[in-house]
Amino acid sequence: MRTLYTEGLDGDGFVNICEEILSAFYKSKTKRPYLYENESTDFLILGKDHISVLCLPPAKAPIGKTAIEKFYLAMKNKRVKEGIIVTNGRFATTAQKYVEDSNIPITLMEIEKLASVAFKAGIKLVYKKEEPEAYILMKNSDREFREHLSKKLKNSIKCTDDIALNLSIVKRDISLVLFYKIDYSVNAEFEASKKIIHKESGEGSCYISERYSKIMDDEFIEIYDMVPKMAYEPKGKEADLMKPRKQILDVLYDRVIEKHTKYIPIKTGPDKIVNKKCAPSKKDIIVQNVTCLFVPLSDTEYEMFGRKRTIQSLESGTENFFALEPKWLVCDVCDKKITGDIFLCKKCGKMTDDKHTAICSRCNTILCTECSLFISKFLGKNEPICPSCAEKEPGLKIKGNK
């Protein structure tokens, strides 16, 4: 069952939700705008007997007889036999009495009744301050984290000795950070010269960081897309969540609009074709479901081959985790980002790039250029050799590091 929210919606957003719920309930397509050509608050549920729907926002005063009379007159002018007025406000106590006494074929639907209709259509409508579905991922123990970290480093770094045997956790602080998984649908039509030139529809989901208001990349999604199945639901304060703030939803809208914007070629003259930008607006996007995911964030200080380092990472309850900082590894000799293979010096523990790595020509021990010795060769070429192998071959013309 998917979930729709009314909180924070503008008038167009409320119309979108009403349209989706009622079209699902009646299993019928809709058409809008219909009754009032200068407004977009009405749509028609298509069927053997069409149903006209009017959506009204909350007002200072409850909706009374005047609004019903106006709507009924418009229905008769369009020869529509049945109508529905939906509001997330209130009807006056006299409104229902007027409809019943006058035998008018209009259903008055406040938000609670709309939620009931939605439930019958397989949709959960959240109209009160209700919390989204939430999960907390299990935290790893220090032992588990050390195993996962050593495996990740082992897969990323070339080293002569076993990293796991030379790795220890010095300090590890754990906190929970919130991510939203927001499922959405988009449905938009675009016209030119009163003709529909493009229909854009689709659905999808985004993971958004609450802390940074940032959409997470494919690596994050690959790790965390299925994690709710292995997580536990939060209790107490942990479950006291707020729905996504406006800034989070704006991030979603911007991404969806960018993803679903198309440029459609249209003919504007005998020999002229231009590309018309067809970009959906916020009112074309419906948030279908929100899942809150609390992920353990580890700020860890560790020691590897005698050198202390730090890593900030998100855990997943499995051996997979997502590194936040450092985003990339830096050569400890030149302080530049390593773009190719990463090497680890056995002697001093420095991480180096290919340029500042020396592999012993005798035993293939990996050292940095500052710890390696070099055998002088002809034409100024130097051959790396580790100190241990150099001792075994007295008489070599040895020079210090480069």
TrEMBL record:
<feature type="domain" description="Restriction endonuclease type IV Mrr">
    <location>
        <begin position="11"/>
        <end position="116"/>
    </location>
</feature>
<dbReference type="Pfam" id="PF04471">
    <property type="entry name" value="Mrr_cat"/>
</dbReference>
<keyword id="KW-0540">Nuclease</keyword>
<dbReference type="GO" id="GO:0004519">
    <property type="term" value="F:endonuclease activity"/>
</dbReference>
<dbReference type="GO" id="GO:0003677">
    <property type="term" value="F:DNA binding"/>
</dbReference>
<keyword id="KW-0378">Hydrolase</keyword>
<dbReference type="InterPro" id="IPR007560">
    <property type="entry name" value="Restrct_endonuc_IV_Mrr"/>
</dbReference>
<dbReference type="GO" id="GO:0009307">
    <property type="term" value="P:DNA restriction-modification system"/>
</dbReference>
<keyword id="KW-0255">Endonuclease</keyword>
<protein>
    <submittedName>
        <fullName>Restriction endonuclease</fullName>
    </submittedName>
</protein>
<dbReference type="InterPro" id="IPR011856">
    <property type="entry name" value="tRNA_endonuc-like_dom_sf"/>
</dbReference>
